[in-house]
Amino acid sequence: MKKILITIFVLIITFAIFSSSYVQSNILNMLIKSGIENNQIFPEEDALSVLVCGSGSPLGTAVAQTCLLVKAGDKKYVVDIGNGSVNNLMTWSSDLLEDINGVLITHLHSDHIADLGDLNLVTWVTRDRKQQLEVFGPEGINDVVSGYNLAFSRDSNFRYLHHGNQIADPLTGGMTAKEIEDGSVIFEDDNLKISAFKVFHEPIEPALGYKFEYKDRVLVISGDTRYDSELIKSFKGADVLFCEVISPDIVDRFIKVAEQQNDAKLKKILVDILDYHISPLEAVDLANEAGVRHLVYYHLTPTLPTEIRFLSDKFFFAGVDEAIENWTASTDGTMVVLPSSSKEILISEIN
């Protein structure tokens, strides 16, 4: 009885404390502070690092659409910028968007460019951007960037009129398009080389993948592609290959549901997407042939809720364990670090 009375007394005192306006106000202040604190996400050591800011696809809204943030030494590049990815980056740490050197777009599907307007805005108004945001991409990127600049032109002017030059300098607002193609070198200095290569996503042409070579480490990003043995030469020598992936098994299950619901349009879309993406085991074949040291799956199609990944991944990646030793199925917040002058491959989750 005495223990029960003590427990009740403690609960009453606790309730009284948390009912206090003073305590509630301080809790609110703490929550606000934690929401805008600039947490250290990338390692301080010299490395080639990748943060998955969007691992999903247009099919499913459980996570953000395709986005990778690559940091090579002191340089940062965003590779694709799908819906929800900017919110992820801002939630994790606004410092992630400081000093972005450029955006690399693999192809012009909406789920790879949907957050481009927001990325431009937050790197301009909330970060100390020194110039217009450079956006690299295949033929057609000029139209995309011009369209975004036009769509956001009034918003940009309003922010200048409201906040002035110190916050919204018109000279650094907006984006500049840089059209590239197979074999283009986006950036090169003594430590870092970024190059583009052709991938196979017909009828979406051209479509590109990207290779980052930083000191003695190599990262390759496939972009969206079907299987083709020509990819082996582009993937060769990679410490880590980020490869997009589709699960024919899971898509077939969706097709059966679409048939049951007489949804001919959804069925048509699901059938069509099977021929221009790469399956988990096809990605393994390419990675093994190219001598890739670690395979990371991203841009999972279809995207299933995170809460059931413990179940769905068993079917999504069936047979992968038997075919390759070192692999990871990413989600939003997966981080890969390749320290320079090392063979280490460090994989973690920031969430």
TrEMBL record:
Pfam families: Lactamase_B_2 (PF12706). Keywords: Hydrolase. InterPro entries: AtsA-like_MBL-fold, Metallo-B-lactamas, RibonucZ/Hydroxyglut_hydro. CDD domains: arylsulfatase_AtsA-like_MBL-fold (cd07719). Transmembrane segments: none annotated. It comes from the Bacteria. One of its GO terms (molecular function) is 3'-tRNA processing endoribonuclease activity. Residues 64-277 form the Metallo-beta-lactamase domain. PANTHER family: ZINC PHOSPHODIESTERASE ELAC PROTEIN 1. This is MBL fold metallo-hydrolase. It comes from SAR86 cluster bacterium.
